[in-house]
Amino acid sequence: QVRMVESGGGLVQAGGSLRLSCAPSGRTFTSYALGWFRQAPGKEREFVAAITWSGDRKYYASSVAGRFTISRNNAENRQYLQMNNLKPEDTAVYYCGDTFRHDWRQRASDFGSWGQGTRVTVSA
After folding, report:
1. Among 3, 66, 78, 86, which is most buried by a count of CB atoms within 10 Å?
2. CB-based contacts of 32: which residues, under 8 Å, 6+ apart?
């Protein structure tokens, strides 16, 4: 079964930056859209950002808009999440997933192929 492989997490101080990367194991990206979600301890997995296969449309949660940027490089078969001005409330495990649904919504149940995630910790 195809799984995403996320990387790039780490420990950073508030105001710092990280760049997350995601690639599918065993196949190229063929899905309609790719997304980033995050899950903090004791909380549900929440939507962060998504991008269509062509890259022409991007979507962001209001909590990260203006600070995070999603992008993808189909030639490299990777997608990225540039996170700037990080805040302690951004601390979570970040996952990337994909969806073949054209009517997808910003919820984890519409996405799949989850990997192990990459942990982001932002200290105050």
Report:
1. 86
2. 52, 53, 98, 99, 100, 101, 102, 104
CB contact set of 123 (below 8 Å; sequence gap of 6+): 11, 12, 13, 14, 88
What distance in Å separates the CA atoms of residue 119 and residue 122, rounded to the nearest whole number?
Answer: 10
Q: Quote the CA–CA distance of 117 and 62 in Å, as a whole number.
A: 22
- Alpha-carbon distance of 54 to 18, in angstroms, equals 24
**Sites in the chain below the pLDDT cut of 70:** 28-29
